[in-house]
Amino acid sequence: MRRRDFIAYGSAGALAAVYLKEQVAAAQSAPAGAISIQLHFEEIFEEMIDGEVLYGLSVRDPLTRVLRPPIRVKQGDTVSIKLTNKTRRPRRFAITGISAATSALIPAGGTSTVTFTAPAGGSYLYHDTAQGDLGRILGIHGSFVVVPMNGLTALGSATPFSKAQLTPAVASVFDAMGRNARFPGQPWRPELVERERTWIFSEIDPALCRAAQQNPNIAHAGLRNIFKPRYFCLNRLSGYDSAHDYWTTPEGYVGEPCLIRVMNAGLATHAPHIHGNHVLVLTDEISKGRPSGNVLEVDTWMMKPLDRRDVLLPFEKPNEIPAAAWPPKEEKFPLYYPMHCHIEMSQTAGGGNYPQGLVTHWAMLGDKR
Ligand SMILES: [Cu+2]
Fold first, then answer.
1. 336 alpha carbon to ligand 1 midpoint, in Å?
2. What is the Å distance from ligand 1's center to 272 Cα?
3. Any idea what the CATH number is for the domain that residue 125 is in?
4. Residues 332 and 272 in one domain
5. How far apart are CA 119 and CA 253, in angstroms?
6. pTM of the shown model
């Protein structure tokens, strides 16, 4: 099988792109209602960036076949998720930040349906909690995004958060778009998938994969002490693949910020660091996924296991380019800048291949439109 075929069938590629686009359109237009979702827990094999093929676990949408499908619903929706466990041991579905979404323990071969009301607008992470961190680390995780019922600021600017949770600091950032010289482009628009990305971090330890393949009931206590990851992923891709995946690489025009929903499904702490622009931190672990009282601009931020943090990539003229040289003439658009994790071992694959780890880039396609 050619690598490209494998990936298209597997975790990324065109299938996931179409899927996400449909999800965004559906969640944006529909009033709150009843949403039915099906998810299968499966045992799979995945190809690493260096060609190594490893055993792992995943969640699959049985209709589209998409692995680790991004789920998107609207605040107030009654969400029913029918879970089918096709793996060899019990699983439990949970969503970080939504305790009502925790399922019963689902035996091997069994099904269970969890029903809950979608909470305030924001970014959440679904995963398996039946074996502590193990199911999540082996690959059962994905994003759960809630679109707010009403995300408008007092000035009428759209935001990804619920009006009742908005802080003056976060509201002022979205109010500045299209109104302030710093953001001369279009305001942020929740229905445009190109104005947002999701970054899910994870790590893969081949020895752990092999052990779980041979014995799905391996002990998970003390996992942190034996975990030796050799692959560090961004949306389950790494290196060249994560740097060339449209749904991972933010791109846009000057003055039109892009929302990035950053989540850590791994067991290691990560420190995403971005070149070109600083990001504006909209939510943090102190605010528990809600809009922050103070918006900081940072070029590196900490992501502990299970952290979720929404940041805004402003798409401003990079500070190192003098105003007199802008818009750029010698080095033309698009301008590319890297994002890489500053926990340095995460930049490798297979114990040394650099830079084939947790890295991607973003692209400034052109001056303001
Ligand atoms: Cu750097």
1. 13
2. 9
3. 2.60.40.420
4. yes
5. 32
6. 0.92
